[in-house]
Specification:
This is Right-handed parallel beta-helix repeat-containing protein. The chain is mainly beta and 300 residues long. The chain contains two helices and 23 strands.
Length: 300
């Protein structure tokens, strides 16, 4: 059986890569509790907890062809946090939970598909939020390196300060870069400051937001790095480039949860079977979205 490559831990303790791969191939959990098995054979209920000590940040790097999965990252200690950096193509992050409040200072997840290929994120829990008036946020796609297609399924992002899913930047195509696509499916966003879902491809390819719910009403104030510290602006879907197709979704907010930013290349939102603002049913949760950390790592 061919073994799938592992994600690399860049924390304060080192992993012996050879023994880590060997343990994964035998179905044994590695030293940091990340079960990485051959594609299609990982048991999502067989996860381990990675505990981050107080005041520390643990970083995991994921490259082309690698998978980071079945990990509950415990950030409940004071000042503890973590981050996943993913680049290249054909990588996967699935059945992963960040448990505990994020103290800020960096994004928890910085993905990019740095070729014309694809990558996938599924069953990701970021529902415990971030310290009010801190900096950075949940997910920020690395616009300088993102050329391909990132497909996101079943994520839960709630109460972050500097965007929930920051899926596009406003200026990188000016440097001759093509820009990439971010598609978001069957996901749930709750009261993320600045925006909940911010997507759009500078090269004119369509980004898709499908069967997603955006709930508002409990936004934590913006802090370090915000243009207006202390504000609480929770845009539902923010199109920086266009077109962005929003289908079968409920996008709440007051005022209506959509904003198109004309500074960033004539964005366009195409709405199909989607309810906006006060008409949205934000009480529903798309099937498959993990509402707890344990549900994410259990693949439920």
């Amino acid at each position: 059986m061919a073994r799938e490559k592992t994600a690399r831990d860049c924390g304060t303790r080192a992993v012996n890569r050879r023994s880590f791969l060997g343990a994964a191939g035998a179905g044994i959990v590695g030293v940091f509790g990340v079960s990485v098995l051959a594609a299609g054979v990982a048991d999502a209920t067989d996860y381990r907890t990675i505990t981050v000590p107080a005041g520390e940040t643990r970083t995991f790097s994921v490259g082309s062809g690698q998978t980071f999965e079945n990990a509950l990252i415990d950030m409940t200690a004071e000042g503890a946090s973590a981050r996943i950096d993913a680049s290249g193509d054909d990588w996967t992050v699935r059945n992963v939970a960040f448990a505990g409040n994020h103290p800020g200072g960096h994004y928890l997840f910085t993905p990019a598909v740095s070729t014309g290929g694809t990558a996938r994120v599924e069953n990701l829990y970021m529902g415990d939020g971030q310290t009010a008036r801190s900096g950075k946020g949940a997910i920020r796609v690395n616009g300088r390196d993102h050329y391909g297609t990132l497909n996101v399924h079943n994520v839960h992002v709630a109460h972050f300060i500097d965007n929930g899913l920051h899926g596009t930047d406003h200026g990188y195509s000016y440097r001759g870069r093509r820009g990439g696509v971010v598609n978001v499916h069957d996901s749930y966003f709750d009261s993320n400051n600045v925006s909940n879902v911010r997507v759009g491809s500078p090269d004119g390819r369509t980004c898709h937001v499908e069967n997603c719910v955006v709930k508002g009403g409990d936004t934590r104030p913006c802090g370090v790095g915000c243009s207006a510290p202390g504000t609480t602006t929770s845009r539902g879907v923010w199109a920086w480039w266009g077109p962005v197709e929003v289908t079968d979704s409920d996008v709440g907010g007051s005022p209506a949860g959509v904003e198109q930013d004309g500074r960033a290349g004539n964005p366009e939102i195409i709405s199909e079977n989607t309810r906006w603002g006060y008409d949205a049913d934000t009480s529903r949760v798309p099937a498959g979205v993990p509402m707890t950390a344990e549900a994410a790592v259990g693949g439920r």
